[in-house]
Amino acid sequence: MTTVAQPTAPRRAPPRTSTLDRPALMRLAAAEILNFAAMLVTLKPDDWTKATECPGWDVRTMASHVLGMAEMAASIRDSSRQQRLAKKRGGVFIDSLTALQIDERKDMTTAQIVDRFTKTGPRAARARRRAPSFIRRRRMPIPQLVGDTMEDWTIGYLVDTILTRDTWMHRIDISRAIATTPALTHDHDGALVADVAHEWADRHGKPCQLNLTGIAGASFTFGTGGPTLDLDAIEFVRTLSGREPGTELLAVPVPF
User: Is the overall model pTM greater than 0.90, yes or no?
Assistant: First the structure.
């Protein structure tokens, strides 16, 4: 009797997890919610219609999306509802989700957006902090597109890391749209940038020296040898997010 070997399915790579310890991640999450809320309060009436660097999104659109994500994080029921409706729309899930969030808030006044985020943001941070470890360890059911590659994340990576990065990056986007300098500190924004830098180095796996300038900057040595990269900390993360073109190592994306 001849035994025919059966082909084996390729093994899935382990899902992406957060790199910082959870207490630090939760401190960053709570602080970033307050920072975004504080920025919204400063917006003038004509600021809301200014275009951001995200194609098709003005400041109001971006704030509506951030509010929608906060309301999703704050409520299991609303999270399930948003995910269900986004899946019905078809297409790339994150694009369908953000479109849903924007559409559902198109009739709100800007004052209502500010008020809702001011109230919901802290609730979202508390809900994220309370997410149990057995849930956060699970693999997300939908792979995520990073650059041109689909990859798996744990729920904890989304809840603990990505939701904070998303809010932070959009705070930078809005600040640039309205031509103001974002409020930055080394302890908060520097910690977020450092986390991005370490994940970026893990993703490309090559030696380099990275020197980031500005309040959120620092210097990092990854391995021995390799190129030396000198650039502003905010431009570094904007490049990795795809907002600026990057070459060689700076073409390796990091999700936000």
Answer: yes
